[in-house]
Structure formats: C-alpha cells, structure tokens
Amino acid sequence: MEARRGDGDDGEADVLSVAVIFFTFALGAWVIGLYLAGVGANPTEDGGNPLTTVGWVEVIVGVILASQVFILVQQSGGEPLILTLAGLVLLFAVFFTALGAALVTGSDLRPIGNLAVPVGILAALYVTFDAFNDTFLFQSSTIWWAVVFLLVAGFAYGKVPAKLLGWALVITAIWGFLPVVYLALDKTIP
After folding, report:
1. Are 19 and 179 in contact (CB under 8 A)?
2. What pLDDT is recorded for position 136?
3. How far is CA 37 from the centre of its chain?
4. Which of 64, 26, 15, 20 is nearest to 183 (CA)?
5. Residue among 178, 167, 130 at smallest CA distance from 38
6. pLDDT of residue 75
7. Using alpha carbons only, what angle is made at residue 95 by residues 88 and 133, rounded to the nearest 5 degrees?
8. Which stretches of the chain score pLDDT less than 70?
9. What is the pLDDT of residue 132?
C-alpha cells in the first residue's frame, strides 16, 4: 500500500488522507490511554470530569475518521485496495464514535466491549490481504490493534486492569504516530 502526494483521483490514497487517518487513530488512542493509565484521570476541584472530555475527543476522532472514509472512496477510482482501506477505517470510525458517545453519556461499557471483539477480529483479517504484503508497519500495527480491541473487551467486563489497557493504548498511539513521521519526511511507510 502506498500513499502519494496529489489529489488521489487516480486510485491512490493521497498522503494527506493517510496521514490524517494515522494521526487521528494515534490521538484517539493517546488520550484514552493516558486517562486509563491514570494520567489526568482525577476530577478537578470544580467537579469537571476528565472522562467526559475524553469521550468528546473520541467522538471527534470517530467523526474525522468517518469523513476520511468518504474521501478515500472518492479518491479510490474503484481501486479495491483503497476501498479495502476505507472499510478498515470505517470499522475504527464506528468504534471510536460509539466509545465516545458511551463515555460522554456515562453509559455501560459492556456493549462497547462487545463491539470491540468483531472490530478487532475484522481488523486482524486485513493483514491477510495480498495488497498489504510487505507493509510491516501496517501489518504489525493492525495486529496490535486487534490485541488492544480484545483488551478493551476484557476491560469492559472487568477482566483487564485499566492501567494495562491504558499503557497498551499509549504504545498503540506511538506506533500510530510513526507512519505520520515517515510521511512528513516524504519516506515510504515500511
């Protein structure tokens, strides 16, 4: 899979779209990861709840990712690889939006855990597609996301400690920022 500079109208993903996707994934993971790890997790003296803010960030992440799905489809020119990537991004968009809405409203997270399982399994299946062969960073981060989604399910049911999931998400975020660095340096993502 290769991103290139340009308008993306020739069946290739524009580098800006790919950068926005990775950067947005990483920011979403970073914010909730630090919260779950206990960084900035205590309510303020005036009663402000940081979890509500985390929820709003996750909703915004989901909306940005959904917008990128439309951009990828427009750029695809019918190219199956780009449409496949759009499908993966849509999975994440639905998950982040649902997670954010649950956090903002203080809802039960078990349905989010239930959602995390198929999203994780489907994400893991993407590494088997021929189009993604020889894309170490994409394949390894997608497998790691699948593991993290299973950790989310475990957390939602009280089986995985918050700090473990939090630090796993921080690692995910760092991994997610790497492709953005490669793109910023005009290098091919390994």
Report:
1. yes
2. 82
3. 18
4. 15
5. 167
6. 84
7. 20
8. 1-13, 130-132
9. 67
| CATH code for position 126 | 1.25.40.600
With contact defined as beta carbons under 8 Å apart, do 113 and 156 qualify?
yes
Can you spell out the DSSP letters for 35-63?
Answer: HHHTTT-SPPTT---HHHHHHHHHHHHHH
Number of domains within the chain: 1
Give me the amino acid identity at 127: V
- Per the DSSP assignment, residues forming a β-bridge with 14 are 4
Tokens representing residue 22 in the block: 């990775």
End-to-end Cα separation, the chain, in angstroms: 10
Considering the domain boundaries, does residue 23 fall inside one? yes
Rounded Cα distance, 18 and 11, in Å: 13
Residue 118 falls inside a structural domain: yes
Query: Which residue range forms the structural domain that includes residue 53?
Result: 14-39+48-184
pTM for the complete prediction?
Answer: 0.88
- Per-residue burial over 23-33, b if 16 or more Cβ lie within 10 Å, else e, is bbbbbbbbbbb
Tell me the percentage of the chain whose pLDDT exceeds 90: 57
Q: What is the pLDDT of residue 45?
A: 85
Is 77 among the domain residues?
Answer: yes
Does a structural domain hold residue 88? yes
pLDDT at position 1 = 45
